[in-house]
Amino acid sequence: MPEPWEYVLNIPNDPRAVTVSRRTLRLILTMHGLITLVDTAELLATELVSNAVLHTKGPAALRVRWSPPGTLRLGAWDADPEPPEPPGPLTHLTDAENGRGLALVRACADVWGWQPLSRNGNRGKYVWCELAVA
């Protein structure tokens, strides 16, 4: 049975961090033999990191954690302690140019949530989601 593992990528408040995070996630999952999760995980991580970078002014971090027998947890920490806006129904957001991120996360992940979380002395929040592997 595979052992649990976790990676944390600290990212600056820079829109390029979204691409760096997505490509890093692809490499992590490929190296751990989880290629079947890559497309969905990339979409989810992109939404989480985009929110962290675009809607806050401080640093952020992407956390990727594997827990046997088959749960992948993705999460983004940011320095804004305010809770995320609750996602609206995805069907109402099909023509929207923004605001779909957490609705996509809710639609594609098995479960998602958020919690207040301080990191390195900075108050903030951690928004996470999980994918289960059958």
List the helices and strands and how they pair.
Elements: E1 5-11, H1 16-31, H2 38-54, E2 60-67, E3 71-78, H3 101-108, E4 111-116, E5 125-132
Antiparallel strand pairs: 1-2, 2-3, 3-5, 4-5
List keywords for this structure.
134 residues, alpha+beta, five-stranded antiparallel β-sheet, 3 helices, 5 strands, 31% helix
* Percent in strands: 25-35%
Beta-strand segment tally = 5
Low-confidence stretches: none
Q: SSE order in H/E notation?
A: EHHEEHEE
Based on CA atoms alone, the radius of gyration comes out at 14 Å
**Please, what is the average pLDDT?**
88
Per DSSP, the total helix count is: 3
Enumerate the strands of the largest sheet in spatial order, edge to edge or round the barrel: 1-2-3-5-4
Overall 3D shape: globular
Distance from first to last alpha carbon: 14 Å
Question: Which bin fits the share of residues in helices?
Answer: 25-40%
Q: How would you classify the helix and strand content by structural class?
A: alpha+beta
The biggest beta sheet, please?
A: 5 strands, antiparallel
Q: What features would you describe in this structure?
A:
The chain is of the alpha+beta class and 134 residues long. It is 31% helix and 28% strand. Strands 1-2-3-5-4 form a 5-stranded antiparallel beta sheet, with helices on one face. Strand 2 and strand 3 (71-78) form a beta hairpin. Helix 1 (16-31) packs antiparallel against helix 2 and helix 2 packs antiparallel against helix 3.
